[in-house]
Write a structure and sequence with these properties.
The complex is a heterotrimer of chains A (147), B (359) and C (171).
Chain A (H helix, E strand, L loop, with lengths): L8 H4 L2 H17 L22 E3 L1 E2 L2 E2 L6 H5 L5 E7 L5 E9 L8 H5 L5 E3 L12 E2 L1 H5 L6
Antiparallel strand pairs in A: 1-6, 2-3, 4-5, 5-7
Chain B lengths: L2 H34 L15 H11 L10 H17 L7 E6 L2 E5 L8 H8 L2 H11 L3 H24 L1 H7 L4 H7 L3 E5 L2 E4 L2 H4 L1 H14 L11 H4 L9 H26 L9 H8 L4 H30 L7 H29 L3
Antiparallel strand pairs in B: 1-2, 3-4
Helix pairs in contact in B: 1-2, 1-12, 1-14, 2-12, 3-5, 3-12, 5-6, 6-10, 6-15, 7-15, 10-12, 10-15, 12-14
Chain C lengths: L1 H18 L3 H21 L3 H26 L13 H23 L11 H6 L2 H11 L3 H29 L1
Classes of the chains: A alpha+beta (147), B mainly alpha (359), C mainly alpha (171).
Chain lengths: 147, 359, 171
């Protein structure tokens, strides 16, 4: 938007405006509250709805997932790879459940699609890694930062 | 001690002092800018993050230092040196304290008391632009060349108003020697009751001060006049092709030029080594006698000079993080249509006042 | 001794100025020549002239030169001496030798001692180079000084007039 400001004689002389500006920065220098969060010591508070790293919910050490393949179907980034298998009690379960986190866009669709409440997104956001990493089932079942 | 050894001592003092300025200013710049922008700035290494500058230096020294294949090698390597040397040389004529007499030998605290004084500063400072031009041309890169062309045009334009703005000062103190100018500023201008207002340049030449300071900002390529660089227009400007220590030399030159500019401003307009208000009482209260008193006086003078210079260095940083940049045509029209006529007007007014005998 | 150092530097860089094919390198060599001239003036005790030499020639004129060279990016073939005609070469040679002969003839009999009232002691006594020179400029030599400034003013007005006319044609 084009804002037309009045430039009077004093504004054209620059000096008074310059000193006003200097005064403002000085006010910030001394009196303003600093917004920096000093990361390792302080952490930002995120809301509970924050979508971070995935985990698979487990009950009594058995994962809730039944390998229904809804989450890889709904996943827009195609980052979930499941190989289904059968347990001894004829129950379907994921033999392999891998999430390629580098592809993941953290949209949370998998969480919404899951009928068994198995795949969930935690509020872990520190995920910097040095090499490409695919999270497997053992890693995901471990419940870290669960809501 | 002979005069030669005293000169060497002063030379060493100035050189070492100037080299300390660069890392400290790096810290002040980063920390100051952060605080003004409601951030905290570097605070991890050392008290208040003071040692970040050391880490920076170590990084600069050990970084890989490639020379691009398309540059003119000789001038490419020469340019940072040409930038830094004039910056060091200009400090030679700036007095940082008055004189002391030891065994009948008068020692001026000034590396060289040339009788061309301020003209020497202008002469050497005008050489600084060649480093930038050389860098821009030798880099064989259109952005670098544009940066250096901008810089040279800017420096020529502002050098004129800079030189004209101090003519008033030279007329009032009728000397070009910085030592004389600093000494004459100790005189009293007006006596207001018990408060004596000294004949500092700011009180007799306020317009000159404003023009000179503005021109000094332009000469040192600092914001709001940092047209030689500019990420959005010409990438990094003249030092685009430079890396590691060679880039650090350009940075050093910038900060040294700032130091010299602040020193000149405080010498011409703020009394140089003249004691700050209140310091005379402190000096009297200490009640030294004989030689000790003289040395205490020198220490106080050096201290007040340093405080003044430090304040103006701070102003440089302060203005940098306050004002937006000028556009190039605005810069030129301010230089030629605003500041040049104003500085001429300043000369005329000063001459009139001197002729009337007011000053 | 110092004189010879500066003199050798000046001569060497004057030669590189002529023989360099690149206009910008030539310009940079010219700067060094001017700087060594300033050094020679300073050795002779004329500090003001030395400072002025640096301010005017190296600080202003050469910056403009390089500025123009960079903007126009002068073509290297223009400086190819093999394309110069023979007549020009011979005329230049004769002219140069004549000038050299005249200068030698002029300065052959010149005395090396300083003459006149302005001795070094007198200058130091009356307040240094700068003061003496400025006092002389504004008293004894006021007329030539003012005439020179009028000449410069005419040059400035001329430059402005030329620049204005060209702009008018374009638009």
């Amino acid at each position: 938007m084009l804002v037309t400001r009045k430039t009077g004689f004093l504004q054209k002389g620059y000096m008074i405006e310059v000193f006003k500006g200097l005064f403002i920065t000085m006010k910030h220098f001394f009196f303003s509250k600093k917004v920096t969060i000093q990361f390792p010591e302080e952490r930002r508070e995120y809301s509970n709805r924050f979508r971070g790293l995935h985990y698979i919910k487990a009950v009594n050490g058995v994962e809730n997932c039944t390998a229904c393949m809804l989450c890889p179907t709904v996943c827009p980034a195609e980052c979930i790879h499941i190989v289904a298998g059968e347990r001894d009690d004829k129950e379907k379960y994921p033999v392999k459940f891998e999430i390629d986190v580098l592809r993941c866009c953290f949209c949370g669709m998998c969480e919404e699609a899951c009928p068994k409440d198995a795949i969930k997104l935690s509020n872990i956001y520190e995920m910097s890694i040095r090499e490409r990493r695919v999270y497997d089932k053992d890693f995901l079942v471990e419940q870290r930062g669960s809501k | 001690m002979s005069e030669m050894s005293w000169t060497l001592i002063k030379f060493g003092l100035v050189l070492v002092g100037l080299l300390q300025v660069v890392p400290i200013m790096l810290w002040v710049e980063r920390r100051g800018s952060a605080l003004m922008q409601n951030r905290l700035g570097p605070n991890r290494i050392g008290p208040l993050g003071l040692f970040h500058a050391i880490c920076d230096t170590v990084k600069f020294i050990f970084k890989e230092d490639p020379i691009p294949s398309h540059v003119d090698r000789f001038y490419y390597l020469l340019a940072p040196i040409v930038c830094v040397i004039p910056a060091f040389m200009t400090f030679a004529v700036i007095p940082f304290a008055s004189s002391i007499t030891i065994d009948g030998q008068v020692i001026n605290f000034q590396v060289a008391d040339l009788n061309v004084g301020i003209l020497y500063i202008f002469a050497i400072a005008s050489l600084g632009v060649y480093g930038i031009m050389m860098a821009g041309w030798a880099s064989n890169n259109k952005y670098a060349l544009l940066g250096s062309v901008r810089s040279s045009a800017q420096m020529i334009s502002y050098e004129i108003s800079m030189a004209l703005s101090i003519v008033g000062i030279l007329m009032i103190y009728s000397s070009v020697k910085l030592g004389d100018i600093a000494r004459l500023q100790g005189e009293t201008l007006v006596q207001l009751g018990s408060v004596a207002i000294p004949k500092w340049g700011i009180f007799v030449q306020p317009l000159g001060l404003i023009i000179f300071t503005t021109a000094a900002f332009a000469e040192t390529n600092r914001l709001p006049f940092d047209l030689p660089e500019g990420e959005s227009e010409i990438v990094a400007g003249y030092h685009l092709e430079y890396g590691s220590m060679k880039f650090a030399l350009f940075m050093m030159a910038e900060y040294l030029n700032m130091t010299v500019a602040s020193a000149v401003i405080s010498t011409l307009f703020f009394g140089g080594w003249q004691l700050l208000p209140g310091m005379q009482f402190a000096l009297d209260a200490l009640a030294f006698d004989g030689m000790n008193r003289e040395w205490a006086r020198i220490a106080f003078e050096v201290m007040s000079f340093t405080i003044k210079v430090a304040f103006f260095m701070w102003v440089f940083v302060w203005v940098r993080w306050t004002l937006p940049r000028f556009r190039y045509d605005q810069l030129m029209s301010l230089g030629w249509k605003g500041m040049l006529p104003l500085s001429l007007l300043n000369i005329v007014i000063t001459a009139g006042l001197i002729a009337l005998g007011v000053i | 001794m110092t004189f010879y150092i500066f003199a050798v530097i000046a001569v060497v860089f004057a030669l590189t100025l002529i023989f360099k094919k690149n206009p910008v390198s030539s310009a940079f060599s010219l700067i060094v020549v001017f700087l060594s001239f300033a050094g020679i003036y300073a050795v002779l005790g004329a500090h003001l002239i030395a400072a002025m030499q640096i301010i005017v020639y190296t600080g202003a004129i050469m910056v403009l030169f390089i500025f123009v060279i960079m903007l126009l990016s002068a073509d290297v073939p223009d400086l190819d001496y093999s394309r110069t005609s023979k007549t020009t070469k011979i005329t230049a040679l004769i002219g140069g030798l004549t000038l050299w002969g005249i200068l030698t003839w002029m300065f052959k009999g010149a005395e090396l001692t300083k003459t006149g009232t302005h001795t070094e002691e007198w200058i130091t006594q009356s307040g240094g180079n700068t003061q003496v020179l400025s006092e002389l400029l504004f008293s004894e030599y006021i007329l030539p000084f003012e005439l020179t400034s009028i000449l410069l003013l005419a040059a400035i007005i001329g430059a402005v007039a030329i620049a204005k006319r060209k702009r008018g044609k374009k638009t």
